[in-house]
Amino acid sequence: MSIAIIGAGMAGAACASRLVRQGQQVTVFDKGRSAGGRMSSKRTVQGYLDLGAQYFTARDAAFMAQCQHWLRAGNIAQWQGRLARLDNGIVVASPDESVRFVGAPSMQAPVAALLHAVSLHTGCQVDQLAFDGKRWQLFSAGVSLGQFNHLVLAIPQQQAEQLLQYAISLNPELNQLFATPALLPCWAVNVTLAHSPWPYDGIFGETGHPLSWLARQGSKPGRCQGEHWLLHFSAAFSQQYLEADSSEIAKLALQALQQLTGEPLSAKVSHCHRWRYAQQNPAFPHYGMVYRPELALGLAGDWLNGGRVENAWLSGVQLARELQR
Ligand SMILES: Cc1cc2nc3c(=O)[nH]c(=O)nc-3n(C[C@H](O)[C@H](O)[C@H](O)COP(=O)(O)OP(=O)(O)OC[C@H]3O[C@@H](n4cnc5c(N)ncnc54)[C@H](O)[C@@H]3O)c2cc1C
């Protein structure tokens, strides 16, 4: 059985890795320059910067076992950041017992490890699909990428909807998957400071505050040393400023930071990144994954399973199990 997987993030990689281990013929396509998706760190001369996923946790026993495997192989490391949270706009210590992991040396490392034995085509955006009732044909810029017995979409909801218009016309039930936005936007900004304003490595935002997360990059293994702070704006703020340009977002980030520290800052913005589809809308239902045998079609991804890295992995593994039945 030949299977095409679109998307080499954690969900697509987990699905591909399981299927290849079962002897299936799998080809993965991703439009990015490398695998990882939203688990991606930007390489700079001073080290990596995590602009997307910041860390991940493991609650499920099977995912925990996978994390232990990655830990032994050096693909991930434990992040023992000193944590705080905002309380009425004030930074207060907030230590907890959670075990947090990060990719080593960059966030995409565990995804790359899953894909080491998989046929992967990066820099390849799939923009058209055709289904003849038996097989799927994939196209990129008018060029056929081949025909496959099964198709897996492991891409964010809004991008899947664009590709699946034809499948939806064959099976209007699929429409329900796209009725509510599953993923909300996030502006990520990296700020370089002269000195650390706080004795912490990660700060959780609070409801109503424009910032949802701040992290000292250098506290993670392999990341930029020095005072590089990564700021995530909240989903509400990011939605409001979705089409703003980076220079406006940079100004707003410095203002928000200054307001938090309460003192004039010697600070410079080095990167702004707009994630249109970032983290889970809590109102979106959990499907786990979706498999439609009559269409030889599967969908996996964090958005179908409650968001987060762990749930992306679980969704991909669950779909691989369905495809092997
Ligand atoms: C700002 C931010 C902060 C986050 N923080 C955390 C956190 O702290 N902890 C946590 O657990 N999770 C966090 N997450 C969520 C986490 O990153 C995701 O849950 C997880 O990485 C999703 O994996 P995925 O495989 O489902 O999707 P993705 O990682 O989005 O992978 C989809 C892939 O599909 C590719 N693709 C899309 N369309 C096409 C196409 N047409 N053709 C070819 N390729 C295509 C993309 O390039 C991408 O590589 C965060 C995400 C963001 C953006």
What is the topology?
Elements: E1 2-6, H1 10-21, E2 25-29, E3 41-44, E4 47-50, H2 61-73, E5 76-78, E6 83-87, E7 90-93, E8 101-103, H3 109-114, E9 119-121, E10 128-131, E11 136-140, E12 143-148, E13 150-153, H4 157-163, H5 165-170, E14 183-193, E15 202-204, E16 211-216, E17 228-233, H6 235-240, H7 246-261, E18 267-280, E19 290-292, E20 297-299, H8 309-324
Parallel strand pairs: 1-2, 1-13, 2-9, 6-15, 13-20
Antiparallel strand pairs: 3-4, 5-8, 6-7, 10-11, 11-12, 14-17, 14-18, 15-16, 16-17, 19-20
Residues 6-12, 29-32, 37-39, 52-56, 125-126, 154-156, 159, 163, 186, 188, 232, 275, 278-279, 301-302, 307-309, 312 line the site of flavin-adenine dinucleotide.
Can you offer a commentary on this structure?
With 325 residues, this protein is of the alpha/beta class. The protein has two domains: 1-40 and 108-179 and 285-325, FAD/NAD(P)-binding domain (3-Layer(bba) Sandwich), CATH 3.50.50.60; 43-106 and 183-280, Polyamine Oxidase, Chain A, domain 2 (Alpha-Beta Complex), CATH 3.90.660.10. The protein is built from eight helices and 20 strands. It has helices spanning 10-21, 61-73, 109-114, 157-163, 165-170, 235-240, 246-261, 309-324; strands at 2-6, 25-29, 41-44, 47-50, 76-78, 83-87, 90-93, 101-103, 119-121, 128-131, 136-140, 143-148, 150-153, 183-193, 202-204, 211-216, 228-233, 267-280, 290-292, 297-299. A seven-stranded mixed sheet has the order 7-6-15-16-17-14-18. Helix 1 (10-21) runs parallel beside helix 8. The chain is globular, with a radius of gyration of 20 Å. The model has no long low-confidence stretch (mean pLDDT 96). Bound molecules: flavin-adenine dinucleotide. The site of flavin-adenine dinucleotide has 38 residues, from helix 1, helix 4, strand 14, strand 18 and helix 8. Flavin-adenine dinucleotide is lined by residues 6-12, 29-32, 37-39, 52-56, 125-126, 154-156, 159, 163, 186, 188, 232, 275, 278-279, 301-302, 307-309, 312.
